[in-house]
Amino acid sequence: MASVELQFLPPDTEDITTLHVEESSAQGGPFVEIQTFPAGTYPDYITSAVVNNATSAQDWFRIRWQDAAGGYTPYSDPVQGGTTTVVSQVVDRVILRDPAIDTLVAYQEAEAVVAWYFGVADPYDVDPSQATPQILSGLTMMTLARCYVINLISSGTTVKWQAGLVSMDHSSSTKQAWDAIERMIDFANRELGRNYSAVLMLEEITVGGQYKQLKSWDVSRLLVEIA
User: Under 8 Å CB-to-CB from 191, ≥6 apart: which residues?
Assistant: First the structure.
């Protein structure tokens, strides 16, 4: 028997009771159920499980969830043992930087960030080899910022709250909190190469008497006034 750790995103429903794990030697199956796990209590369902009954650590695994009425969710996509995803790497880094962030929220926002950056519909299709340390840093910072935005919005009229690196109370305005989040987003964009700048050179303009002086310019309309 082999031992394999699986990481996953649990469903956002209140009546889930059991996680079912299936194994196959091939990605296309056939699959056989090898182990079950208690799902935990909503909203703190398990997000990882160590499978001790695997035939091989390099086999393929898929999961599905069972609810209190005996119904099942659709199967997940098969994942090969011993591999990881960009989403799970980002979530691990997010929780390491701020353990107070809800893991389920971190997974949801990491999925959105990874799909956005790599331009894919399914973030779990991204090859982890494409995520360099710099890209992972940027994806992590962007996911943190999105989680903090959710916290800031959901805090409503609360006069004091803290979300990891960002905090606000009656002595610090909402604007200061937004400014801190925007700086995180700017940093993430720099790491991801999503910030752009350009330097424009104006050609020398000759006017009567060879006298010229730049008085004003309007970038929105590309107008330059010369005197």
Answer: 134, 135, 137, 138, 141
On whether the CB atoms of residues 11 and 17 are closer than 8 A, the answer is: no
pTM of the predicted model as reported, rounded to 2 decimal places: 0.61
Cα–Cα distance for residue pair 124/7, rounded to 1 Å: 12
Q: Is there a contact between 130 and 117 (Cβ–Cβ < 8 Å)?
A: no
Compute the distance between CA of residue 23 and CA of residue 183 in angstroms, rounded to an integer.
44
Question: What residue numbers bound the domain in which 170 lies?
Answer: 86-192
Q: Are 17 and 68 in contact (CB under 8 A)?
A: yes
Q: Which amino acid, one-letter code, is at 209?
A: G
Question: In terms of residues, how long is the chain?
Answer: 227
Asked if residue 6 belongs to a domain, the reply is yes
Q: What mean pLDDT do residues 57-79 have?
A: 93
What does the pLDDT look like over 95-120, one tens digit per residue?
A: 889 988 888 888 899 999 999 999 99
> Which structure tokens are listed for 198?
């350009």
Residues 38, 10 contacting (CB under 8 angstroms)? no
